[in-house]
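Propose amino acids for all 79 sites.
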């Protein structure tokens, strides 16, 4: 299993948007979009757990630097 951190997401992205983006690269064990407690809106980053390490590596290679709306997202292995 590999946990990924996704940064610089568009603020209007939902948990479902993030999950759909990563499903193309393998099985997802979990997806957590970080929300602002006061507004309930996205803070622009999320954590995604890919079932297999190689699927996480493929997702990083394919999605890191990709453009979504006006944002160029960053994807890396979470520490």
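Proposal:
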């Amino acid at each position: 299993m590999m946990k990924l951190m996704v940064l610089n997401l568009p603020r209007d992205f939902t948990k479902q948007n993030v999950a759909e983006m990563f499903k193309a690269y393998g099985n997802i064990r979990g997806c957590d979009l970080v929300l602002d407690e006061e507004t309930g809106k996205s803070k622009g980053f999320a954590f995604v757990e890919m079932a297999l390490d190689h699927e996480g590596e493929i997702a990083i290679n394919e999605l890191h630097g990709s453009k979504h709306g006006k944002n160029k997202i960053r994807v890396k292995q979470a520490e």
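The chain has a mean pLDDT of 95. The two ends are 13 Å apart (CA to CA).
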